[in-house]
C-alpha cells in the first residue's frame, strides 16, 4: 500500500540523515588525531591584483582527508566543529600554519599576504580573541600581511556586538575582509561601520557574470559604490578569462578563482610564484 511504502521510505531517509549527522558530529572527536596525523592541512588559493597583473596574496582553505571517507569539504565539517565548540582550535591551527607558510614564502622571495577564514561565532568569543592575540604576538612581523575573512552573516547576526568585536580584532593590527558579500542582508553603508577595508563579492554572482545581465549590473554597481565608500573589492569564483576581463573593465581590484589558480599546497603555490619573482629580479 502506497502510504506504507512512503512511510518506510521516509523512515529509511530519516535514518540515513541521522546516521549522516551523527557521523558529522562525530568528526569533532577525531579533530586532534586528524591534525596530529596530517590529515588536516591547508591549501592556498592565489589572489590576483588585477591592475598590477600579479599574484599578491593567497587565501588559506582548510582540507581534511579522512582515512575512511576521503576528502571531506569544509562546508561539511566546519558546521560540526562549530556545534561542538572545536572551531577555535581548528582556526588557530590553520592560522599558525598559514603564518608559518607565509614566512617560508617570504624567505624564498615571494612576500605574499595571506588570508584566513574566521567562523561567524569567533570574533565575539573572548577566549578565542585572547588566543588569537597570543598567536599574533608570536608572529609580530606577519601581522601587517594577514587578513581575516569574516562572512557577511557574521557581521549581521548581532550587528552591535559584531561592530564591537570586529573593532577589537582590527585593533590587533590585522586587516578584515567581508566574505561572501551579496548573500546576506547587509548594505554597504552598514558594512562601512565595520573596520573592514575589503569586500569579497560572492562567487554566486561571479560564476554567471558572462550570461547574466542582472549579475553584471549588481557587480558593476557594487564595485562602484564600494570604491566610493573606501573598500577594495575582490571577486571570487573567476573561472574564465572573459569574466576576468569583464571585472577588470568594472574596475575590480582583485580576482580569485579557478582561472587564476585552484587551491594548492603551500610549496606548489611557491613554485608557481617564486621563479617569476626571481626572473623579474
Ligand atoms: P570561502 O572562504 O568563500 O572560499 C571560497 C570557496 O570557493 C572555496 O571552497 C574555494 O575552493 C571555492 N572556489 C574558489 N574559486 C572557485 C571557482 O573559480 N569556482 C568555484 N566553483 N569555486 C571556487 P572551499 O575550499 O570548499 O571552502 C568553502 C568554505 O569553507 C569557504 O568559503 C569558507 O567559508 C570555509 N572555510 C574554508 N577554510 C576554512 C577555515 O580554515 N576556517 C573556517 N572557519 N572556514 C573555512
Ligand atoms: Mg574566504
Ligand atoms: Mg567567499
Ligand atoms: Mg563561502
From TrEMBL:
Part of the full-length chain shown: 499 to 779 of 779
> Which source organism?
Sphingomonas morindae
Domain called EAL: residue spans: 24-277
**What is this protein's name?**
EAL domain-containing protein
